[in-house]
Amino acid sequence: MNNRFLIFIIAIMCIGLVMKAPASAGDGRGVDGAVCDIPACPDYRKDVSWASRPANPDKPVDVFYVYPTIYPKKTPKNMDVFNDELRSDVQGLLKAQAGAFSDSANLLAHFENIVAKSGNRS
Predict the structure, then answer these.
(1) Residue 18: what pLDDT?
(2) Residue 42 sits in the same domain as residue 58
(3) pLDDT in tens, 22-70
(4) What own/partner pairs with CB < 8 Å and gap ≥ 24 does 49-53 have?
(5) What local confidence, expressed as pLDDT, does residue 17 receive?
(6) Which residues, including other chains, have CB under 8 Å from residue 63's CB and lie 6 or more apart?
(7) 31, 52: one domain
(8) Residue 91: its pLDDT value, please?
(9) What's the domain range around 5?
(10) Complete DSSP assignment for the chain
(11) The model scores a pTM over 0.85
(12) Do 106 and 62 form a contact (C-beta atoms < 8 A)?
């Protein structure tokens, strides 16, 4: 088999995969074609996207805390990191679970666009 034919076959297969792929989040539709609300993504260059980020990281150790999944809703699929109630829940977890490190480490924790697991109810 020559290389041109092999490249042609691979290109056709790739086009077929793209055409059969489910709708992406970028078009505002779910796999089933239903229109869904997609919360804004956090911008980690900004302080508002962080649950904890020291202004002056002066401790010898950095601790990056990833909180457990707290988002149980079915729609929207992604947690809205700008929702005040959810942000408060994250702050509570941060204090309860990672607060022990705050005296001896630079504690970092970002707000995550958590995706709800299938089977969860709103």
Answers:
(1) 43
(2) yes
(3) 443 344 444 445 555 678 888 899 999 999 999 999 999 999 998 877 7
(4) 49/81, 49/110, 49/111, 50/108, 50/109, 50/110, 50/111, 51/87, 51/90, 51/91, 51/94, 51/109, 51/110, 51/111, 52/94, 52/98, 52/107, 52/108, 52/109, 53/108, 53/109, 53/110
(5) 44
(6) 98, 101, 105, 106, 107, 108
(7) no
(8) 92
(9) 1-36
(10) --HHHHHHHHHHHHHHHHHHSPPPGGGTB-TTS-B---PPPP-TTSGGGEEE--SS--SS-EEE--PPP----SSSSB--TT-HHHHHHHHHHIIIIIGGGTTTSEEEEE---PBPPTT---
(11) no
(12) yes
The amino acid at 77: K
Answer yes or no: do 68 and 106 share one domain. Answer: yes
